Amino acid sequence: MHEELDIIEKTFSEEIKTLSTKEGIESIRIKYFGRKGLVPSLFEKIGQLPKERRPEWGQKLNELKSKLWNSLQEKEKEILSKSSTPFSPSHSLFSFFDPTLPGRPMQSGTLHPISIALKKIFEIFKRIGFTLEEGPEIESEYNNFDALNIPLGHPARNEQDTFYIKQKVVLKDNSTGKLLLRPQTSPVQIRIMKKKQLPIRMIAPGRCYRRDEIDATHSIVFYQLEGLVVDKGISLADLKGTLEYFFRELLGSHLQFRFRPHYFPFTEPSFEVDGAVRPPEGKDPKWLELCGCGMVHPKVFLNVGIDPEVYSGFAFGFGIERYLMVAHKVPDLRLFSENDIRFLKNLSPSF
Question: Which parts of the chain are coiled coil (predicted)?
Answer without folding.
Answer: none
